[in-house]
Fold this sequence. Notes:
- The protein is mostly helical.
- It contains 19 helices and no strands.
- The longest helix has 32 residues.
- The protein is globular and about 55 Å long.
Amino acid sequence: MPSFETQVKLSGPVRPSEYARSSGALSITGLAVAVKRSGNADRRFARAVSDGLVAFCWIPFVAIGLLFRSDPERLIWFVSLTLLISFAHQPLTLALVYGDGRNFRLRKRLFTWSPILLVGAVVAAQHVSLTLLAIVAGLWNVEHTLMQRYGIIRIHARKVGEDQGRLEKSMLFAWMGLILVLVAADRGSGRHVERAGMRGKNRRGVEVLLDLQPVAVVLVPIVAAVAIVTTVWWLRRESRRGASGSFPKRVYVASTAALLVTILIDPVAGLLGFVGAHAVEYFVIVHRSVGDKYPNAQIDGGAPIGVALRRLGRTGFFIVYVGIVLGVVSLLNRWGNAALYTVVILTLGGMHVLYDGFIWKRPSPRPGGMLSSPRSMLTGRSVDGSVRDR
């Protein structure tokens, strides 16, 4: 009679009890295979559900934005809440860098001097040109958010052996470019700024975009052509891959396209989805990664962030972290002024965007990188299953 393992390969999952009845004895090896396959199936299902929730986490933000579109007070409240959620994810990067000496030593000079330089740059920009500050902050945030979405696409792609991401990156930026020029070319876009109650650098950034309306009208057909060409090229390549391509990647790309379309339909609701989803995705990515990174003090060298994670648990750690962020924001609102608020928000945001470039996008100077587990250093795979850049 064929072994339990052979039956599994030929006919799919087989219950250990069925094999025991047919063979007269329960194979210990067969039972181990059954338990392992069952556990793997459960983990794959849980990951598929999690991937799906991440891919479409922008929908609640858009839905609430659309629900409140006729209620200015509630819409302004929800815009403020979304911006608070967006800000809350940014200092988490600092905890990963300064809470683990191994990470800090990867770019010691950068991590030492960048806070001072960023504070100086923000203060100087406030005195030189608020418009320049708004443009730089806006473009940097758009690029950062798109690169995170691109990173998630590459994670899915590499799990099936795809290692060519230039087209997908070009396509994402072409899509975003088309959205920006279409919004700028629309004479009615200005009313959305008033409806959302935008203030400060966010308002000025949008106003600068709208001031480019004559230029945007000329750029629309050019950017649209680039977007169409890259999209058709990507679709043809995916069709050639057939079933061997990554289904989760395709779902995430389609979800990204749908999100960007909502910005055209309703810019306020669409931008709420764009900004809110970015923060949620970041929390999920870090939550997945830190478990394997900080299993015990022997592995992480007693890093403060590892100690906190083990004592509080991952969920408890994030609850405490969010509480600290909310406390800082409350203090700024009560005792700070507009200038201080801008310096703190933009400096922390700048550090987050800059440091993320070394955590997620660029090759580490030594194997492992910031968020690779000890196991991944041996296997060449990061904790999310993606092959690291080399």
